[in-house]
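Support request, please re-run this one:
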Amino acid sequence: MGPLAGIKVIDMTTVLMGPYATQMLGDYGADVIKVESPEGDVTRLIGPTRHPGMGPVFLNTNRSKRSICLDLKKPMGREAVLRLLKDADVLVYNVRPQAMARLDLGYDVVSALNPRLIYAGVFGFGQDGPYAAKPAYDDLIQGGAGLAHLMALGGDDTPRYVPNALVDRIVGLTAVGAICASLVHRDRTGRGQRLDIPMFETMTGFVMGDHMGGLTFDPPLDKGGYARHLSRDRRPYKTSDGYLCVIVYNDKQWNAFFEASGRSDLRDDPRFATFAGRAANIDAVYGELARIFLTRTTGEWTELLTKADVPVMPMHDLESVLEDPHLVVTDFFPVVAHPTEGPIRSMRVSATWSETKAEPQRLAPRLNEHGEAILREAGFSDDEIAAMIRDGVTRPAPSAVKE
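Re-run finished. Output below.
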């Protein structure tokens, strides 16, 4: 029984940002009902598959959920969602609020039906500014929040996106926190509320928290930017036979590094001797470290630095991280038996609780796998369900997968 056991979540999200948030709510114990279009979430089509509609991106962002497909543009589809919402605790959606209004599922409509509902929207922009109705995607927000510019400053002067759906996942995490806080508020007051979690504002605060710098002050003291983050040599260090991730940060670590590396002479260099000196000369400091690490192998450096208690980690690729000794011992990537997809590699819930254990409730569902059961729970009769299938409001239950 996870910490959110007993909480019912209606998940009207697609792609990554919303599904990542609702998967986490499901992992924490909530009953998450994923409402998909008759075509299904587009991420079902991304990546290699054993069976159509069950791609790896979908499998890794939609566990701990039940699936129902409904055509919300048809009256009975909308009626089905309203019945699901009548006793739900949370609705999460990631279309623009204007689209929810067109479906006649805006907050004014839904809150009148269920005043205790947490109505959570994860979308591009705050609704009180000129971008309110604009579409948004991860890449756009990375650029708009300054990440692509920062990648150029710290690299080869070419703006780049981070090769990860960073915005979607950070905003998804922010949504989980906001939803849980709203559930606490509701328990105290009995009232639900509308939550808007905008991508642009969330990521701008996330990035500028590090890089506001002298722009914090009015008038500004500089042009912003955290110098250590932007140093050209702040990257995995090349060794004589590979790469290694190292950070030498505080005075204790620097003294240990001087001894371990045989570079005690740097103690007398004012650029290295104090935290302030290193901060003011970070490019020179990191440049010298880059030269030092070329003198030994990755294995030699790892052994030396580990003994000296200087923070060090391997630079993994997408395959080697699966074999990291810490992650192997903690069984972070268990191979589990999916009922239709066979053996798949999953990932553990990273947070742990001493009283309310959280773990995946179920593996990612096939499209409409639980549709008929969910409709019956909402009070639909077998005849009504059959009519909805006939009229294209929903689909028949998926057939068994042949081995």
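The mean pLDDT is 97. The domain at 8-206+335-390 is CATH 3.40.50.10540 (Rossmann fold).
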